[in-house]
Here is the input.
Amino acid sequence: MTNFAFIMLAGGSGTRVGWDIPKQFIRIAGKTLLEHSMDCLVSAYPDKKIIVVAPADLIDMTRALIEPYPLAEAVIGGSTRQGSTLAALKHLEHDPPHNIVIHEAARPFLSRTVLHDVVHALEHYEAVDVAIPASDTIIVENEGIIQSIPRRDKIWRGQTPQAFRFRTLMDAYNAFTSDRLEKDFTDDCGVVLAANPFVKIKIVRGTSDNIKITEETDLVIADEFFRLKANAIDPNIKGVNLKGKSAVIFGGSAGIGRAIEQVLNDAGCTTTIGSRSLGYDITRYDHVERLLGSAIEQAGKIDFVINTAGHLSRKNLEDFDPAEMEAEISVNFTGALNIAKAAKPHLKKSKGMLLNFSSSSYTRGRGGYVPYSASKAAIVNMTQGLAEEWMDDHIRVNCIVPGRTDTEMRRSNFYNEDQSKLLSPFEVALTAAKILDGPNSGMIVRI
Here is the structure.
């Protein structure tokens, strides 16, 4: 493979997404956008150097984030994209690679296939760009009036990565003053083409999901993309090894919880189960602590805490009396908070995982069981929040959102349902085992 290095541009301000930190440091699915984008590069080329260009006031934060990537180093960028690229090029100039591949930290969904295509194309061209055909009509404007409408079949939308012979890009940057670089260009292919109009820049076709996080709505789309990726988990127990691990399962005496116990035991994991029928009420903090203490006595540690407990009453809100409403929310949400709070010290010691369960009704409140739907939406937000709070303690927090599953609770609330169309609790349990054996945090996994 030709000698090359990566430049990761992480110097944007992020003001358009409405946050008080640059967008590359916003956390989605348990990691910052910068880390997700770094993973895209490292998963494909783990032996390549990565120069991460960051704002001066955030250079220490950047260095802390990239510490797990042994071949990555952070440098201070300029006030513009071109200034940041130039800072990285000058940093590399003392020992320049043959080729350079530039990616943006705000694009966390780069396909490995596209990245390979870019690297291979660079063996035959001096410069390579990634783009996709434009789906909208493009209008050229002049003082508020349409000047022209180019043929759409000739218009493509640029993405990253872009790749270059190192010397080609360095010479192009040296051909212009800093003022012109700042005013006249928006990407590096534009700089190269202006410096040498005869250079052939190869287009590698990108993908529609290689989006750039720019606006606040892009964060919503990105969050959904990460959920879709999580849903690709293969629910096959093959390869899962939980020998020597210890799990506590709340709600483990029936339904999904009971299936998880059996699957984890088959994978070599020690389990301790608790439920209201066994004398453990998760709405009571002391009961939660008692079950966790029992697990410590039995196994000496707790690697996983799994909460499958839940309660569903199907009736309109006006038909709940206040005590019933409080009980429903206490089991479905307050109990989950009790479990999380009590479990944290144990999971911090083991660097373990809290695995929550929500419901497909969290995406849209359902008439006839509003307290339940609202509580399950809260579980998703709780999972995402705790994944961020507990990251520095190396505790992973994830959530499974099963589809309609054949459990006692469902049968008692949905009569005459065709059970052949329901998930088996063991299908859900197998997915849970795969998640417990994985490295991810902040994931909302739909089944």
Summary: The chain has a mean pLDDT of 88. The two ends are 40 Å apart (CA to CA). The domain at 231-446 is CATH 3.40.50.720 (Rossmann fold). The first strand starts at residue 4 and ends at 9.
